[in-house]
């Protein structure tokens, strides 16, 4: 069943209620004559949330969007979901599926469309198809996108209802909650500076996560472990502590035969870690070790030689680590750590949800570890209560899940940087003349080479070839011209990748596995490759050119905390070559514009 699997990391039992149950619940609060349309709206919105969840984890991070088109008689005419940014919008796919049935029909969206800068394909598809009414589950979580699509659709004459605003009832609120759950990571990013974090553990009936000896394989059943693989595949990263690496030597892979592989994060204050470990094998997924500044420099060099990234912190604690990975663009993190680190993460307030697999086993042991270490609580009145608790049997095990803190409500408007600065100038993170950009959903996100804007570049046959984004073009050209069938195959795979994230994953993975396939002159030509692609992008899209020119007078900084070549780095130590190239192009475009203006004056 889709819901029991797809929405498992975020959903509560509310997502498993049927439409008839919805109708019954609503009838207890209002008249039966009004119940049918409300129950129908709620049911279709919940279906849109189901569809949206199908893309979770495949090319993360991106919003999860689904669309259902229903005819006036209440039958489904078309459905669609967004696979990744840069692919066809859910609304476009649903319209294509529904065809002529779109006329006078209603479109149900789990979330307001939030297109990359200048792309209004979702709204245009609904308008041009003749959709009469649109029901939106929630407005877009990011403030610079919130309300834009709703206003655009209304300006074209569509009736637009937003759950909780135009339609109110208990059943409507429950459907709206489904929409919040399916995009919980994006909402948490909009409301806080930490990713949406899930703590997962497996324990025996007497609360042990291992025997007194430390042996822990296997507490839960094979079915439960399969669910854990799904959880990993839906997450941007998986976190463990040093004890887990030493004791279990995990791989932390999703093992689902393709798609997204999460980044593996090891938190270790002293770097007392083995020289050989499965996590140092970078062929399947990347690993980042976070540690205290100055810890075991020689071991850091050893990890670097294996391709493992090491990030140092002045004081290693879960809050600072999660804020750092928030800045790297991570939306969702799965914690599979031991009790000591779990307790620290809970105390730091970074854990949003708990997944506990309880196996019908008793192992005992006075010194056997428990899933959560010391929290400093001495009375049961201090215990942390879970919210929206859900129970599910998985094979012989019982899965108990619930939230430690509620998903932030979208009703309050999250202040922009400018509004926050007006209230308190001391809290602004930016200098007035610096414009930061990183992820495509940011205000200036279209400056990113991940923005889904296709470009046409010259090919070897004296013609032109279309690339779905600058990132597609850049990653592929690491292997262009290499006389090896595998390199040529890699170029083809990158070119066919459905999204920029997928193209980057293929290119970076192959670079790690087979560095010998990278063209020998890559280090000397990569800046020129990026420059040519960026120049094409900002030349063929007038709205992007205008946006770039509007930044005149400001320093452009790609706010990647980990890329010290293309980005500005964590503490401004990066070379910021992407920002430099954009400023160079801006200067060139401004010069051309001024020259054109002077020429016009002379002609007149």
UniProtKB/TrEMBL annotation:
One of its GO terms (biological process) is riboflavin biosynthetic process. It catalyses: 5-amino-6-(5-phospho-D-ribosylamino)uracil + H2O = 5,6-diaminouracil + D-ribose 5-phosphate; 2,5-diamino-6-hydroxy-4-(5-phosphoribosylamino)-pyrimidine + H2O = 2,5,6-triamino-4-hydroxypyrimidine + D-ribose 5-phosphate; 5-amino-6-(5-phospho-D-ribitylamino)uracil + NADP(+) = 5-amino-6-(5-phospho-D-ribosylamino)uracil + NADPH + H(+). Pfam families: NADAR (PF08719), RibD_C (PF01872). This is Riboflavin biosynthesis protein PYRR, chloroplastic. Pathway: Cofactor biosynthesis; riboflavin biosynthesis; 5-amino-6-(D-ribitylamino)uracil from GTP: step 3/4. The keyword Transit peptide applies. In the C-terminal section; belongs to the YbiA family. It is an enzyme of class 1 (oxidoreductase). Keywords: Chloroplast, Glycosidase, Hydrolase, Multifunctional enzyme, NADP, Oxidoreductase, Plastid, Transit peptide. It comes from Morus notabilis. Residues 39-161 form the CMP/dCMP-type deaminase domain. It comes from the Eukaryota. GO terms for molecular function: 5-amino-6-(5-phosphoribosylamino)uracil reductase activity; diaminohydroxyphosphoribosylaminopyrimidine deaminase activity; hydrolase activity, hydrolyzing N-glycosyl compounds; NADP binding. NCBIfam families: eubact_ribD, ribD_Cterm, ribofla_fusion. It is found in: Plastid, Chloroplast. GO terms for cellular component: chloroplast. Its EC number is 1.1.1.193.
């Amino acid at each position: 069943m889709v819901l029991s699997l797809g929405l498992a990391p975020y959903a509560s039992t509310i997502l498993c209620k049927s439409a008839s149950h919805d109708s019954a619940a609503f009838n207890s609060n209002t008249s039966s004559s009004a119940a049918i349309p409300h129950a129908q709206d709620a049911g279709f919105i919940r279906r849109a949330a189901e569809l949206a969840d199908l893309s979770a984890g495949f090319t993360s991070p991106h919003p999860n969007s689904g669309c259902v088109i229903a005819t006036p008689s209440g039958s489904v005419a078309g459905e669609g979901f967004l696979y990744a940014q840069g692919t066809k919008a859910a609304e476009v796919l649903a319209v294509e599926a529904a065809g002529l049935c779109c006329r006078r029909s209603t479109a149900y969206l789990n979330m307001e469309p939030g297109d990359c800068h200048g792309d209004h394909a979702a709204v245009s598809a609904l308008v041009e198809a003749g959709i009469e009414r649109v029901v939106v589950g929630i407005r877009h979580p990011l403030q610079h996108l919130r309300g834009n699509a709703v206003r655009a659709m209304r300006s074209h004459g569509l009736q637009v209802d937003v759950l909780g605003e135009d339609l109110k009832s208990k059943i409507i609120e429950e459907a709206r909650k489904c929409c919040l759950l399916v995009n919980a990571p994006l909402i948490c990013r909009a409301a806080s500076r930490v990713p949406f974090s899930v703590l997962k553990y497996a324990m025996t009936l007497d609360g042990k996560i291992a025997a007194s000896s430390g042996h822990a394989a296997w507490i839960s059943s094979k079915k439960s472990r399969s669910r854990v693989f799904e959880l990993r595949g839906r997450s941007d990263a998986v976190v463990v502590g040093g004890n887990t690496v030493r004791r279990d030597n995990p791989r932390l892979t999703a093992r689902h035969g393709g798609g997204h592989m999460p980044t593996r994060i090891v938190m270790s204050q002293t770097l007392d870690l083995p020289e050989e470990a499965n996590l140092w094998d970078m062929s399947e997924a990347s690993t980042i070790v976070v540690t205290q500044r100055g810890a075991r420099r020689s071991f850091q060099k050893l990890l670097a030689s294996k391709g493992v990234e090491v990030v140092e912190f002045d004081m290693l604690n879960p809050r600072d680590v999660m804020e750092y990975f928030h800045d790297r663009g991570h939306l969702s993190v799965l914690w599979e750590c031991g009790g000591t680190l779990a307790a620290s993460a809970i105390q730091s307030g970074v854990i949003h949800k708990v997944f506990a697999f309880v196996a019908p086993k008793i192992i005992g042991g006075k010194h056997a570890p428990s899933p959560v270490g010391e929290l400093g609580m001495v009375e049961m009145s201090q215990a942390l209560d879970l919210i929206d608790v859900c129970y599910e049997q998985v094979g012989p095990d019982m899965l108990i899940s619930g939230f430690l803190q509620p998903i932030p409500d979208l009703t309050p408007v999250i202040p922009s940087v400018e509004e926050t600065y007006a209230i308190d100038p001391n809290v602004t993170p930016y200098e007035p003349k610096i414009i930061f950009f990183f992820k495509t959903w940011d205000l200036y996100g279209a400056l990113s080479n991940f923005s889904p804007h296709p470009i046409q570049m010259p090919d070897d046959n004296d013609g032109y070839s279309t690339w779905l984004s600058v990132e597609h073009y850049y990653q592929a050209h690491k292997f262009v011209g290499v006389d090896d069938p595998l390199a040529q195959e890699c170029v083809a795979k990158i070119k066919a990748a459905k999204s920029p994230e997928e193209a980057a994953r293929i290119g970076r993975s192959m670079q790690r596995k087979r560095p010998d396939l990278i063209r020998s002159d890559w280090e000397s030509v990569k800046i020129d490759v990026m420059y040519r692609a960026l120049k094409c992008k900002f030349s063929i899209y007038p709205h992007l050119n205008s946006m770039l020119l509007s930044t005149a007078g400001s320093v452009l900084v790609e706010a990647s905390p980990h890329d010290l070549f293309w980005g500005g780095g964590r503490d401004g130590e990066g070379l910021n070559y992407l920002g430099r190239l954009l400023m160079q192009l801006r200067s060139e475009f401004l010069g051309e514009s001024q020259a054109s203006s002077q020429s016009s004056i002379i002609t007149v």
